[in-house]
From TrEMBL:
Membrane topology, from the record: Multi-pass membrane protein
Source species of the chain: Streptomyces cynarae
InterPro entries, sorted: ZIP
Subcellular location: Membrane
Major place of residence: membrane
TM spans (from-to): 6-23, 35-57, 69-91, 129-148, 160-182, 194-216, 222-242, 254-274
Name of the protein this chain belongs to: ZIP family metal transporter
The keyword Metal-binding appears for this protein: no
Keywords: Membrane, Transmembrane, Transmembrane helix
Pfam family, one: Zip
Domain of life, per lineage: Bacteria
Length: 275
């Protein structure tokens, strides 16, 4: 395949994430809608944790079956490091951000309170969650881009096209997952904010496609998948806390189930393609 075609395929796969982002601009969503959006996001992201970890563990599992202990050790250590940085790293990062936010909220003198009120809305908890979701999904999508690039590099055009369809559908649901915390809190992000979140979440698919065209490496893929799994798992924990505060257990349960089913449905095309 030509470089132009590969570039186009990577762009299409990555930027379908924008299909789900505009829902974040809903005005004054009802409490039940807020809870539903949050729960669907939990379902989608829970599926992604399973999907990411299964792909990350696959090369290690194959090496175990072949008794290739060096590969098992390096792959297992890479996955463990990625998970640790992605999960524990975000815990410490969030604690640091919270301390800075609290320090900024304390009046330090005349006019300080007014300045705090003018702080950007992107510093809110919902905005931070949306950014973390976009980052975790971006790491995951980089690995997806590697798969597209690898297929294109081998001249497997039909496989590459099927991957584009599957990953494109998947990214569309992921865009919904990114903005769900904002919609659930009634925050209406600007179009510029949505553009930025989309670049963080979808852009790595495009970059991964270009890298995968020239580089095929299991260790690199495991590292990014481990980071993605850890960061997405952290966000799921945070969203579950939001769901508990909402107190709508039945609605939350059904919407989490809906999110899981959406994840499996969009991933089915990728599985059919042999990825």
């Amino acid at each position: 395949m030509s470089s132009a075609n590969i570039t186009l395929l990577g762009a299409i796969a990555g930027f379908t994430i924008y299909l789900g982002l505009p829902i974040g601009r809903l005005r004054t969503p009802t409490p039940r809608l807020k809870a539903a959006l949050n729960a669907v996001a939990i379902g989608i992201l829970t599926f992604l944790v399973w999907d990411v970890l299964s792909h990350a563990w696959e090369p290690v599992d194959e090496a175990l079956g072949k008794h290739e202990w060096a590969t098992v050790a390096s792959g297992g250590a890479t996955l463990a490091a990625g998970l640790t940085i992605g999960l524990a790293g975000l815990v410490h990062y969030d604690a640091w951000i919270t301390r800075r936010r609290n320090a900024a909220a304390r009046p330090a003198g005349p006019g300080a309170a007014a300045t705090a009120e003018l702080a950007p809305r992107t510093r809110s908890q919902a905005g931070s969650l949306a950014l973390m979701i976009a980052t975790g999904i971006g790491l995951h999508n980089f690995a997806e881009g590697l798969a597209i690039g690898n297929s294109a590099a081998k001249g497997e055009l039909s496989l590459a096209l099927l991957l584009i369809i599957g990953f494109g559908l998947h990214n569309a649901t992921e865009g919904f997952g990114i903005v769900a915390p904002l919609a659930a809190e009634g925050e209406r992000p600007s179009w510029l904010t949505l553009l930025w979140l989309g670049l963080i979440g979808g852009g790595p698919t495009f970059l991964g496609t270009l890298v995968g065209r020239h580089l095929v490496d299991d260790t690199l893929s495991i590292a990014f998948l481990g980071l993605a799994a850890g960061s997405i798992l952290y966000v799921v924990i945070e969203l579950l806390a939001v769901a508990r505060r909402a107190g709508l257990k039945t609605l939350t349960t059904w919407c989490i189930l809906l999110g899981l089913l959406l994840g499996f449905a969009t991933d089915a095309v990728v599985t059919a393609a042999g990825a």
